[in-house]
Design brief:
The structure is a single chain. The chain has four helices and no strands. By secondary structure, it is mostly helical.
Length: 64
């Protein structure tokens, strides 16, 4: 997964105004208590970041 797809999915689920804020503020345990942005900056693959976000947002399996 490319980073652009990660952002597309986050925006689709959280909306344009909230996706970026959520990604900056929400620490995800699955990412070592890092935020989405921190994980991406640390080199965590976008696919792994999406899986952590998917889990945290409790999205349906079809969205994985």
């Amino acid at each position: 997964m490319r980073e652009v797809e990660l952002w597309r999915r986050l925006t689709a689920h959280l909306g344009d105004g909230y996706a970026r804020s959520w990604a900056e503020m929400t620490q995800l345990e699955a990412l070592g208590s890092r935020t989405v942005l921190e994980a991406l900056e640390a080199g965590v693959p976008a696919k792994d970041v999406w899986r952590a976000a998917w889990e945290a947002l409790e999205l349906p399996a079809r969205e994985r």
